[in-house]
Sequence to fold (250 residues):
Amino acid sequence: MRNTVPASIARMFGHSPNSNAPIRNIAHRVGPTHKNNFRSSSTKIKRKFCYRNFVYKECYKLLMGFRRYPHKQYTLMTTLKNELVGTWSLLSYIEVPLNGLDSTFPMGKNPKGSLIYGPDGHMSVQISSSERNLFSSNDRFIVNEEELLSCVKDFIAFAGSYQIDNHAATVTYAIETSSFPNWEGQLQVRKIDFEGDILYLKSVEPILSGGSYVNSYMTWQRLEKVEMQSRRERFVEYNALKREKTAFDY
Fold:
């Protein structure tokens, strides 16, 4: 089957688009000047298609979330750090023993907690039981044994720096200070997962808790989004009242 001339190329040489003449015949008939023009036009068309393919490939890379440069790889999609930075409120805290026993709620079924990731790479977390009782004295240095024990069991906090591994979807804490001094100077790794405004953190390495090794599972909710939602609701309510007042005036 012969290679026929595309209509756009044929018109360029003043040839009938319906002709079945091969491309080489047209180039031979029109002479060397038009032949060079034909080659030049073909080169331009090839470059045009190459550029279009390049653009398609780059768009695909953007959609996939990466683009490689000669010496660096930049992540163009939102990184995990951008997702983590902010303040989170604790929803649940569960520990699952490795020995197969039932999961436990070390801070009760309704724990209280705050988790803060700063853009400067530092973090802090405080978790407490919602069932803590008030101390008998307002002086925090005057406590009995029961109050001291509840202070150890029903509260945990630490702070330090953090690093994120985007490929492994983990965050590593370098603990600098902690209410449990044995954690100071240690590294703890958490697996990260998101579902909307909900953050799931799972311990990668088991920790010793209550005499057995456990994996911890924590669920957090972003506070900023909740505040923005309440602001949006107030704004919608204000606009509704304004429309009602305008309709009443008319």
Observations:
- Residues 23-64 form the longest helix (42 residues).
- Confidence is low (pLDDT under 50) at residues 21-39, 65-77.
- The CA atoms of residues 136 and 142 lie 8 Å apart.
